[in-house]
Predict the structure.
Amino acid sequence: MSKTSILSLLVVLLFGVVELAHAQNIPVQPAQIDINRSDNAGNATQARPRVTERQAVEIARQRFAGNVLRISLIGEGDNQRYQIRMENEGKLFTVFVNVITGRISGGG
């Protein structure tokens, strides 16, 4: 091999090694870190199914007769619930439906 061929080969190899070293220093994006994390240290209520407003109204209507006047989301964490104001034959009452379990409290 001539000196020029050897020098050209060394330059190509050198640039290849530099490019390889540069590619290994690419920072990991935060989204990639979150995707690859296996622990469930986040908010536990996010993994649970949630009752929607519409489902809460259906649950309340299955148990109590009357018209729905208003629905509000109240409370925090495991105690978060829908407050549903209802009316039947001139009587006002409140039904609470738990957002996580769908369990009813109040009413009547």
User: Anything to note?
Assistant: The chain has two domains: 3-44, 48-106.
